[in-house]
């Protein structure tokens, strides 16, 4: 179809009904003239009209061919089908309502699902600079044919991975926690993000007020804080807060800056309220955490972001980080000889998606693995990989563990670390040994020497205080509830403590 023909069809298509009427009139005129000539030859009027129509041929077919030449047959057919469908729907209103509701629900559900998937997996975090070059580090090990990719690992492992500089231009660590912010009745649990100073270089996000913390403050665990813009506006009335003191957990921080309005970092769920140096987080988790996080490979609590150098692919960065990971495992094995050999664990570092839901274990299989049974297997896998899993205890039939407090029992075999290297609030004294209780409701611990009780409950602060009162009645703790340490952002566990 030439351009001239196209414009001609457009011009006639708009007046196709009038032209169809003219065509019908013209055909009828031809039939009438031919019938008149036949009458003059001696035929009757009826016979002459019938003979004239036979000579002209199928008038309907002529009209259809003419309409096709004038316009666009496909569009005309669609319009006719739509008109026919509308007439049918108008005759059956009940069926029409059912069809409309079904289509509406189907379309709405698909739009909602795509919006959730887009937010969780595809859309980059706000203000992230050059998202195509940024990735999250996942460490994968394989034991007895079962693979486990973790995005959370020890601080020392982050330090070891920082040695990869050939393909990596920038590396940062982060962690999520919930701590009580403020003092007295005004205290409220807030989400706190512990980050390294390099974390802010991943974003085009200059502070709205003040500054971000620097490497010297992170290396010395200086308690400084950067507020989110929302927290600053809603809780502090957008006042000049630079230099003001703010109690976070049990540590007194100094406010040095305010992040821009759209800055949310890369944490999961809701945006953080406050950003603090990563090295100040252990101070809110007990003296054991402060002493161990720089020398122990058993506490998984940080996540790592990397930015690739120009021209470096994800495969190149993963290969270099894998080499650094193997060296890090060798350093961990020097501290703990029970760490699995690389020939058994098959260590692999992966530079994957920034959003963990799109990471190596973020698909349907990974989400299914978050079930209770699979979660126990994944925990045991990680303990075996670190050399802290006692297979004999895992095979003990119907093991029960009442702990030092005599609260709860384990409904399944218990995985027991060979040595107590986990978080200080997770150890429970049992017969002179330390172990991990597999209680789904809470984890309680008692440090008898310091007469300190830490209670962690998944059912809120009221349940934690009730369990503290139960400890008090048993005479193993001071008779007063002393404070709220915080809530883990990963497990939603309220942590309260009682101290003499």
What does this protein structure show overall?
By secondary structure, the protein is an alpha+beta fold. It has three domains: 89 residues, no CATH class; 226 residues, no CATH class; 102 residues, no CATH class. It is 39% helix and 20% strand. The protein contains 16 helices and 17 strands. The strands form two sheets. The chain has a 15-stranded mixed sheet that branches. It has a two-stranded antiparallel sheet with strand order 12-13. Helix 2 crosses helix 3, helix 2 runs antiparallel to helix 4 and helix 7 packs across helix 11. The radius of gyration is 37 Å and the shape is elongated. The N and C termini lie far apart (93 Å).
Keywords:
500 residues; alpha+beta; 3 domains; 15-stranded mixed β-sheet; two-stranded antiparallel ribbon; 17 strands; elongated
How would you summarize this macromolecular structure in one to three sentences?
This protein has helices at residues 3-13, 16-40, 45-56, 59-70, 73-91, 93-122, 155-161, 215-219, 229-235, 287-292, 314-335, 342-345, 364-368, 372-386, 391-394, 461-473, and strands at 134-143, 146-150, 168-181, 188-195, 209-210, 224-227, 245-248, 251-258, 274-277, 303-308, 348-352, 428-430, 433-435, 442-447, 452-457, 483-487, 494-499. It has 500 residues and is of the alpha+beta class.
